[in-house]
Amino acid sequence: MNKLTISALILGMSSLTSLPVLAGTPTVSESGSFEQKTGEKLFNSICQGCHMEGGKGASTGAGFYPVLANNAKLSAAGYPIYVLLNGLGGMPNFKDYLSDEQIVEVVNYIRTNFGNDYQEKTTLAEVKAMSNR
User: Fold this and answer.
1) 0.90 exceeded by the pTM?
2) Which CATH architecture has domain 3-131?
3) DSSP class of residue 31?
4) CA-CA distance, 35 to 127, in Å (whole number)?
5) pLDDT, tens digit (0-9, with 9 covering 90-100), for 100-119
6) Residue ranges of the Cytochrome c domain (predicted)?
7) If we measure between CA atoms, which residue out of 98, 100, 82 comes closest to residue 42?
8) Which of 51, 67, 111, 118 is most buried as measured by Cβ atoms within 10 A of its Cβ?
9) Among candidates 127, 109, 96, which has minimal Cα distance to 42?
10) How do the domains of the chain map onto residue ranges?
């Protein structure tokens, strides 16, 4: 994903004013990476624009965005790690914009919130093994 694509993504997310709550616009450094550090802040700034508040997803309107709430696919940490690193379907990859540590934070956040109760924490070693950084 190039800087133009990520800029369009950010611009699109910040224009979603009809959503009930958007916790913040992503903060991007000069290098093009996101500056938020916690899983909650990263989700609220980057993911919530598509996956909606509470991880409810969207199945009507302009597009389909998978539900993260009560999602059995999140039981294996490797699945969301893979999706964040490589993208899937219409979701872009975030490997050039999120550090391995940020990916750990997002994965742990979505696996323990929104009705998900996958308590086994994702580790930095797991993400590094998949990111090849």
Assistant:
1) no
2) Orthogonal Bundle (1.10)
3) T
4) 18
5) 999 999 999 999 999 999 99
6) 34-114
7) 98
8) 111
9) 109
10) 3-131
